[in-house]
Amino acid sequence: MRHGVVSLFLILGWAFFAPMAPAAAQQSANSSENTADQVSEDARAVDIIRRADRIRAPAEPFRYTLTLAEMKGDSEVTRQSFDVAMRFYKPESGQEGDARALVRFVDPPTERGKSLLSIFDKLWYYEPKLRRPIPISRQQRLVGQVSNGDVVATDFDLSYISKLVATEDCEGRKCYRLELQRRWPHVTYPKVIYWVDAENYRPYKAEFLATNDKLIKRAWYKDYKPALGVERPHEIYIEDSLKKEQYTRMLYSDVRLEAVPEAYFQKEYLLRLR
Q1: How far is CA 202 from the centre of its chain?
Q2: Domain CATH number, residue 161
């Protein structure tokens, strides 16, 4: 079960890091005020981040197929495929936001029936041998490769306070270099260094840092191809700073707008996916 849970967390990669539920966000406002006071919002940085967020994922409910390849050197260690349905709305104009994802194992066949449901910052895992879906604690999400899910899932605009610090070269192209500091205590990585193409706002690279600025992971956004009217990354390459010979390739395909029924995003629905 452990490998299955780890892989499912990775799937949440492309679209978002689930923000706090509205009530929890309100309760955490005081705890985040110190961070907000120390790092002021940068209007230009916010605009860049929002443009890049919409390239990584659409603002409407969508669905896609993910192939997850765990690599060691040039060799593929494991490969799995998943069906992912996502719904994500940012809070605006007095309306509450929404962040939900339903993930189902597709391949290998022996793992079919396993699933993961994410609603804001809460997660449940289910597999046929369980009587009911089980919650996944925040501590469990940080075990091993599980944190990769946070690396690629972050909605930077919602989760971080951003600042534009420089313009740098990215393999011959001009990139904005931004520094991001987390808004909420539940956001896994305290700081992110983020590079975005200055011409087309495509994400290029991100470095995820600890509180002491020590590098934890790097992510590269690659293989841009048309999807839903925009050139989007169809591969995210994730490297652990301590295990550079081991890395993860997340490959996206069959991306489409699709609003699945509300009932699919309920814990009880997972029992029907046996």
Answers
A1: 16
A2: 2.50.20.10
pLDDT in tens, 180-206: 999 888 777 899 999 999 999 999 999
What type of residue is 71?
M
Dihedral (CA of 251, 257, 262, 264) sign:
negative
What is the number of domains present in the chain? 1
C-alpha to C-alpha distance for 175 and 164, rounded to whole angstroms? 11
pLDDT tens digits, residue range 107-159? 999 888 888 888 877 888 888 899 899 887 755 554 544 344 555 465 788 88
Residue 271: burial class (beta carbons within 10 Å; 0-12, 13-18, 19+)? middle
Give rounded-to-5 percent helix, strand, coil for the chain. 25, 45, 30
Query: What domain range is 77 assigned to?
Result: 2-273
Tokens of 64: 């896609």
CA atoms within 13 A on the CB side of 13: 30
